[in-house]
Amino acid sequence: MNFTFEEYNDGYTIYAGGIQINQRNKFEKALLESKKIAQKAVEENVELIAIRNTLLETQHQLELQLRKLSRKESFQRELSKVLSHDLQEPLRKINLFSSRLLENEDLNHETDLGRGLLKISRFVEQVRHLLEKLEQYNGLEGKALEHVPVNIEEAVLKAKMDCGLSSEKVNIVFENHLEPDKKFLSDNRLVLILFRELLVHAFSYHKNDDYTSKIKISVDTITENVFTELKDAYKYEECLRIVFEDNSNQKYIPSTSIFDLFWKLDAEDTELRFGLAYCKRIVQLLDGNITTATNKKQSLKFIITLPFK
Amino acid sequence: MNKTISQRNNVNIIGNGNQTILFAHGFGCDQNMWRFVTPSFIDDYRIVLFDYVGCGQSDINQYNPARYSNLNGYAQDIINICDELDLNDVIFVGHSVSSMIGSLVSIKFPDLFSAMVFIGPSACYINDTQYFGGFGKKELLELLDVMDNNYLGWANFLAPIIMKNEDKPELVKELEESFCATDPIITRQFAETTFFSDNRKDLSRIKIPVLILQCSDDAIAPDAVGEYIAQQIQDSSYVKLDATGHCPHMSHPEETILAITNFLNKQYQTV
Q1: Which of B103, B111, B193, B202 would best serve as a mutation to test chain A binding (most A beta carbons within 10 A)?
Q2: Rg (CA), chain B
Q3: Which of A234, A293, A296 sits opposite B66 (nearest CB)?
Q4: Is A123 left (phi over 0), alpha (psi -120 to 50) or beta?
């Protein structure tokens, strides 16, 4: 019951209105329900407007990214042409003419000019080799990936064979901790090149021919956040982890610069090395990540994580 | 200004030793719960205490539901702290769910920890055909429902079950207050992440020495769970404590300290 009291000078009036209690509960319940539905609709509408705005912004960002990609692609094509032809051609000619000069009867390898020409030929060969590697490195970008089941152990053995490394030269211990039904899908060619480069790198610093490189490669799984570039975005997925452990007691200091182009072991190192930059580029193309670490044994570890597909 | 990891996770460093012990609190708790055990290690070790993001005095603004929907998100907190403090050769002491969080860190970075101590660990809380975790799935879903509908009632109900030791009502009250002091949405998500995780397969991948402290009459992690974990970890030591409940470091600190000290003496050959 609801009551209203109205007072006059000479008296008062009481108004009373009532409703059966079960009816009242029913009406109140219906009112609350309607309020809840209306509130939910308002919230959903706000959410939808926010989502729409986000989508529009994303679309705009996507357009900018596509323009950037298009610019990069055209630059890439030009660079490939320069590397594969424009820079190679003058080098080829320098080599040709210095060879001709050397063939001249008056010149031999003992004269200053002869020695100078020989040096020029050697440098030209080095630069040509460098350009070829740069072309391969640059060419990785446009490579179409072919995802097939990859057997890591087979890839390691094949890489070892490709590098012409005998068991006397390199001792590889392989540990597979993957569950038997776990399939790793990736680009077989790139995985093979990756191991080839890692093996070459591990082997390349040994001046002593009698030395045996000790490599341990283990494979297992690890859960990682798949978003590495997006800030505050998280989605955890199981990834393949390859630990390539080089126990050759080399004087490494792990750092990210190890993956830079032309990284040098020390000041005395005169070679322009591509290997690890090449490895990093391959891993990036396979949507993975490569880092380094050392342990108490002072061995260098390359830790590679790759998505299962 | 960007906050450092130490500020984010309210890191506190005490002690005088060279080797570091990292104490990681459990679900619904904070670093303060270690106060009964840390004084015993302060002379010989450097002690690192912290709160997971969303717990204790951490920076709650850094909480990201997607990140902390998985124990790996919490593991990342520990990795970030070790990275910022440049820690290695760490002794990890984890209570309850932190045991599995520590395991994930150890699997990811095998050289970061040299030994681990698990207090009341569980690799999986849900019963399986060949495994007794202590809870049915339905039971845990109901518990989450209660958290959604009556958070204070939930805290009031769960704190005495976890703590046991009715003779120490102040500890039950402390745990209940700790539950109530944290953000209900964050605590609810932490509960879901904790109780629905299954880390059984991870145990055999732990390669460092681990001490498992199993409490008597623990409603959260029953004996069978502790025994299972000990069996699965290659280099494990199992100690069944007389301490009851799920928080022996609070209810029975002396026994907990003794078990940890014996283990560390054995591992590091110190007297």
Answers
A1: B111
A2: 17
A3: A234
A4: alpha
State how far the Cα of B263 lies from the Cα of B5, in Å rounded to an integer. 30
Does the distance separating the beta carbons of B72 and A236 come in below 8 Å? yes
Domain count of chain B? 1
Give me the amino acid identity at A155.
Answer: A
Q: Could you tell me the CATH number of the domain that includes residue B21?
A: 3.40.50.1820
Residues 217-246 of chain B with CB under 8 A from chain A are: none
Query: ipTM of this model?
Result: 0.85
| ∠ CA B250-B251-B255, rounded to 5° | 95
| Residue from B89, B92, B94 nearest B114 by CA | B89
Q: Is the pLDDT of residue A183 over 50?
A: yes
**Domain range annotation of chain A:** 87-141, 147-307
* Residue span of the structural domain in which B131 resides: 5-268
Which phi and psi (to 5°) does residue A215 adopt? -120, 135
Name the CATH superfamily housing domain A147-307. Histidine kinase-like ATPase, C-terminal domain (3.30.565.10)
CB A190 within 8 A of CB A220: no
Distance from CA of A46 to the nearest CA of B (A): 21
pLDDT tens-digit readout, A190-232: 999 999 989 888 877 655 566 677 889 999 999 999 998 888 8
The two three-digit tokens of residue A173, written as one number = 């211990």
What is the number of alpha carbons within 13 Å of residue B221 lying toward its C-beta?
31
**What amino acid positions of B are annotated as catalytic residues?**
96, 218, 246
Are B111 and A232 a contacting pair at CB < 8 A? no
- What digits encode the pLDDT tens for the residues A97-126? 888 887 775 666 677 878 888 888 888 888
- The per-residue pLDDT for B271 is 45
CA distance B14 to B83: 18
Mean pLDDT of A289-304: 80
- Going by C-alpha positions, the residue among A236, A280, A78, A239 that lies closest to residue B74 is A236
Residues 6+ apart with CB under 8 A from A64: none
Residue type at A90? P
Residues A151, A183: Cα–Cα separation, whole Å: 9
Give how far Cα B103 sits from Cα of B74, B122, B196, B204, Å. 11, 11, 16, 10
Tens-digit pLDDT profile for chain B (271 aa)? 568 999 999 999 999 899 999 999 999 999 999 999 999 999 999 999 999 999 999 999 999 999 999 999 999 999 999 999 999 999 999 999 999 999 999 999 999 999 999 999 999 999 999 999 999 999 999 999 999 888 998 999 899 999 998 889 999 999 999 998 889 999 999 999 999 999 999 999 999 999 999 999 999 999 999 999 999 999 999 999 999 999 999 999 999 999 999 999 999 875 4
Cα B249 from Cα A83, distance rounded (Å): 67
